[in-house]
Amino acid sequence: MILRRSLCLLALANAAVCAHAADWPNFRGPTRNGISVEKGWRTTWPGDMPVAWKAEVGLGFSSVVVSEGRAATAGYADGKDGVFCFDAASGAVLWTHRYPAELGDKFYEGGTTGTPTFEGSRLYWLSRWGNLMCLEAATGRVVWEKNIAQETGAPIPTWGYTGAPLVHGDLLVLNVGDAGTAVEKATGRLVWKSEAKDAGYSTPFPLGNLAMFGNAKSYVAVNMQTGAEAWRFRWLTEYGVNAADPVLAGGDVFISSGYGKGGARLKLQGTQPPEEVWKTKALRTQLNAAVFHEGYLYGVDGDTTQKSPLKCIDFATGEEKWSESGFGSGGLVIVDGNLVALSGMGEVMIAPASPSGFKTSARTQVFGPKSWTAPVFANGLLYCRNGRGELVVLNLK
Amino acid sequence: MKRRQFLQYAALSGTSTFLAPFVRSAEPRKLRTALIGSGWWGKNILKEALASGRCLPVALADVDANALEIAADQVQDLSGHKPKLYRDYRELLAKEKPDVVIIATPDHWHALNTIEALKAGAHVFVEKPTGHTVNESRAMLKAAVESGRVVQVGLHRRIGPHHVSGMKFLKSGAVGDVGMVRLFAHSPGDGPEKPAPNEKAPDGMDWDFWCGPAPLRPFSKKLHPGGWRNTLDFANGTLGDWGVHWLDQVLWWSGEQYPKRIFCAGGRPVLGGAVLNDKEQTSDAPDHQVATYEFEKFTCIWEHRRFAGNDTEKHKIGSYYYGTKGVLHIGWKDGWTFYPTTKGGKMEHEDSQLQEPDGHNIQILWADFLEAIDGRKKPVASIELAHRSSVLPLLGMISWRTGRSIQWDAAKEQIIGDPAANALLSRPYRGPWVYPSV
After folding, report:
1. B12, pLDDT greater than 50
2. Burial, B17: exposed, middle or buried (Cβ in 10 Å; 0-12, 13-18, 19+)?
3. Of B70, B196, B225, the CB nearest to A236
4. CATH of the domain at B347
5. Which of A21, A104, A163, A209 is the most buried (most CB within 10 A)?
6. With contact defined as beta carbons under 8 Å apart, do A309 and A328 qualify?
7. CA A275, CA A266: separation in Å to the nearest integer?
8. A217 and B66 in contact by Cβ < 8 A?
9. Which residue from A126, A147, A138, A142 is spatially nearest to A74, judged by alpha carbons?
10. What is the largest CA-CA distance in chain A?
11. Predicted ipTM > 0.95
């Protein structure tokens, strides 16, 4: 174990050395943009889908995180939320941490919505209901836990807290309250909080010292150390659902919401409010944020209630380049220049990320609907989960 | 110049350049349309109004400034027209004098909104059930009759294609003699219900106004958005929300206008006792109910469960008509299906034809409303019919509240020999709002 850790440190200099160089330790991956640069995996396979392992994790739409040979996610069953940790290679259950929780089936099946965060020997988890905890990654032992909603008095938004904890130095930055909340990651001690108003559903995204995320009525940027608000960009969306993470591209950022709202490219200006470059109705990301690759955005346009298309839009203009109909409210990641997408109906599709069209090299029906969770790629394994809690891991090595 | 004179001159002149502007103005004037309650469902209806090409969205009213702003954006996207925005529906009606008003507020507001809109001279499309209590519904009917305006109620299952064909099949005698009808809506769910904290209402929302004539409850996400359906101050639970659609179908099929006797049992054994204190609250509608409606020629049972909804039974929502030749299920997304009981009987089925994503038929109901406004027909879900249908779940709720069976005198619209139950035909209003008079 010690040897492996030191190898990983060396890996900073040479990624190929470490077995876990291509970990996916937090929501949206190592660089928080849905991109993995991992090479040497296959974009096509003959015959049946190459299943590495399968598991049942309960109801919900939590994504998977992968670090140092472990894979974790969450789900709900029998009156309890569960945080599950698996051996990434074999799928053996390393530990499970369960606690009483509500189903929360408000206009959908219910279950967990957020995603845990690995950092070193710890796993951090914020539940829909405000249960915030630090678990030992190796054992699942509770290092500390609390209910952050109760402690701060922040209201729980309609579908609960969904943003994953962001580790920043000694702090965990959370999308809780009007403009975030931070606790000490070692102890859970509250460091700063914001007004007791509804949070949005996105994960705090670091921009230097600032974290940017959606609240009920805008995207806000706050200083991560102090909680001081730098700016807010008014972004009124139906039911306060600002869920998609900001997508950073150069010095600009793309924000987008569903319910017909649309997207906008904003020019970032440090601690000054950003300036709108363009707006579009061509890409309205209700749940999963788009992914940026070589001048283009790829993402799902529309709501869970529709058979939404997968689209490519030009980041320079906001214009649509192509639209693949019937994709549904799934998600995608980009791995070494390839779109690795999981449709709302549970079909994996792999295609080169290109503005000229969506030409798949592989398509496999992994499970049934609803799969609203973007797939995760780490160390040659593709992690897919659906709302019912089927977790299917494909081996693309 | 009077219009008729103008027409004569225009005809005489015979030049196309002179005629052109006149031809354009001869197109029917667009109906100045307003929406009261600009949430999810209100916007769905307004979208159909805009899609009809005959309605100009002049104004929106909502007690939530955020909901107004979002709706205004969508209306502008769809129509290119910027509606005027109002917090107070009374001000909207007084200033805009709309031709048509859509009412999609929670149930406890339907009566006051509708009556005021009719007084302002508008035709009204109001959501089901008509009233929150029986006498509100009666007052709405009275106001509609006095105004001479068209009132269409959002009972889109009166016109939905598979309901129309299912009814035709049923009335053809193909199901035989029907002696019993079972209506139901089941969903999966868990218990006990955990209270949600009371909160400050969101910025921009006038919560006192939202509660209006109903008791002023503390704001909670249990209530808004959508959850008010299961809080009895504002609605009547699943029986009021879903039951009215299916009970309406029973009146349509049978031609009977009312049941003689009603008994309803139910409770919250799964969700647990209702909570309302200064810190938190739960919903308070029953998690299940069984209501028996005794008609002249058949018995009708309503049944809902907000737990244990799975595939044990083939259908989860809709109606079973039990006849001597078989069982007809008329459902929602699953269309209608006939299951014969006779040897050699043929199973028959027709798919639903619904508008997605929300599975309704508002588009054709709106078209029917416009035809009625044009004077070509009576609206298919008229206030007269919808009043009788809406009374049924409301009487079911009164039986459930009093814990005894009630007998309905439809001519007098009174419960026979039960003053305590009759008292529940109305309810006290919170001032300054005044209960409408019948």
Report:
1. no
2. exposed
3. B70
4. 3.30.360.10
5. A163
6. no
7. 5
8. yes
9. A126
10. 55
11. no
**Interface touch A156/B197, C-beta < 8 Å:** yes
Element (H, E) at B16: helix B16-26
Interface residue B310 vs chain A (CB under 8 A): no
Q: Residue B371: inside a domain, yes or no?
A: no
- Please tell me the pTM assigned to this model: 0.88
Sequence-distant (≥ 6) Cβ neighbours of residue B173 within 8 angstroms? none
Domain-embedded: residue B188: yes
For residue B26, the model assigns a pLDDT of 54
Burial class (CB in 10 A: 0-12, 13-18, 19+), A149: buried
- Which candidate in A102, A108, A109, A303 is best for mutational testing of the B interface (most B CBs within 10 A)? A102
Q: Per-residue pLDDT tens for A198-255?
A: 999 999 999 999 999 999 999 999 999 999 999 999 999 999 999 999 999 999 999 9
The closest of A24, A4, A47, A2 to A382, measured between CA atoms, is A24
Query: B12: which DSSP letter?
Result: H
* Dist. CA B57–CA B76, nearest whole Å: 9
Please judge whether B225 and A102 are an interchain contact, meaning their C-beta atoms are less than 8 angstroms apart. Answer: no
Options 2.130.10.10, 3.40.50.620, 3.30.200.20, 3.30.70.1560; which CATH number does A24-395 get?
2.130.10.10
Q: Cβ(A262)–Cβ(A281) under 8 Å? A: yes
Least confident of A11-15, B128-132, B342-346: A11-15
Q: Domain of B30: which CATH number?
A: 3.40.50.720
- Which stretches of B173-240 are DSSP H helices? 207-211, 237-238
Beta-bridge mates of residue B398: none
Shared domain for B170 and B107, answered yes or no, is no
Q: Which of residues B13 and B395 earns the better pLDDT score?
A: B395
Q: Which two tokens stand for residue B353?
A: 């034809």
CA distances from B352 to A201, B233, B309 (A): 35, 34, 21
Tokens of B64: 């939530």
- Indicate if the pLDDT at residue A315 is higher than 90: yes
